[in-house]
Amino acid sequence: GLSASEEAKVARAEGALGGPRKLRRRASAREADVFDLWAAPAQEAAKAATEREQAAASTVRRVAQNAPSSAPKTLHQKVSAAPAVLPAHEGQSMNPHGVAYEELACLAAAKELEREREVEAMDRQMRPLTHELRDALGAEATRDMDEEAKVQAYRELACPTAAAGAARAEAEAEEALRKGQAWMKSQAHRNKEQKRKRIEAKQAQAKAQKRLEKSVGDVGAILKEMKDREEWLKGRKEYKRSMRAKRKQLEETEGVVPKCRRIGRGKFAEEAMVVPDAEASAKGLRAMPLQGASAVRERISSIVRRGMLPAPVEASRGEVIRHKKNAGKLRRGRKFVSPLLRDQLGR
């Protein structure tokens, strides 16, 4: 047998045959730096395992986030054909012509009147009964009315005869109940009513059959009516196509966004046109500032107009309530869960 020192010498000789120690260290380091595409991702797996352990040890309920399985179909589609920068009106220049300035003022006033008319039309559509009463009785008379009084006033206004008849019938019913004059139908009266209904049904059926027999000779008129309707539908389709092309042209040239376009919860609303201050013209038109002009607002408006971002919602009380509800829902979703109940919730 070999002694311990001799075995150590043999081991050193075998190690020397494999190459120098520095070269072996460099080779092992180089192998560690090489990225293996088909190997298991060690860092991602370790991170996922750590997250699972933390989620299992946590007492807070967490909602899993669903990862998208495929790319959206509208990923590379342009929503709008509006230009990024819209040229300013001639009346907004530093030294505008009188006619151009007057045209700008009239255009801004027309847009403001149109916006007010749309708001009034929407309000009338949401509350038709109130607006009808306001037009007929005046705003002062309808201001202190409750819903019941409004319905009664509208009934008297729309159908006065029926309202009077209903009031008379109600009064007669109250009088009959007060006097105790209750009348019940007899069996003979019920039989007469059933017989009358059967006779009326047979007469209606005979009239329908007679009308059908007479309509057999009107085939030519029916075909002519169908042909006229087809021509009308064709003209309507052409009109819709022309209006669609006109809207697209206006969007490409002037940046006019269609009113039916909606991205997210809100629609794009064009800001009011900036009109230079006419009172500052005493010092010269070059000293006339543009009220409300801001590069940041103009860029944000351009981004929203082109459909790159959803339009900001209007700051209203309903929006505040919606945000409060969402915050409360999120807070209740992350409430504390007892470790004793966590296993039962996971089942």
Automatic annotation (TrEMBL):
Residues 1-25, 46-80, 181-212 are annotated as: Disordered. GO terms for molecular function: 5S rRNA binding. It is found in: Nucleus, Nucleolus; Nucleus, Nucleoplasm. Signal peptide: none annotated. The keyword Nucleus applies. Belongs to the NOP53 family. InterPro entries: Nop53/GLTSCR2. Residues 1-12 have a biased composition (Basic and acidic residues). It holds the Pfam family Nop53. It comes from Zooxanthella nutricula. Keywords: Nucleus, Ribosome biogenesis. This is Ribosome biogenesis protein NOP53. PANTHER family: GLIOMA SUPPRESSOR CANDIDATE REGION GENE 2, RIBOSOME BIOGENESIS PROTEIN NOP53. GO terms for cellular component: nucleolus; nucleoplasm. Residues 187-199 have a biased composition (Basic residues). Its main location: nucleus. One of its GO terms (biological process) is ribosomal large subunit assembly. It comes from the Eukaryota.
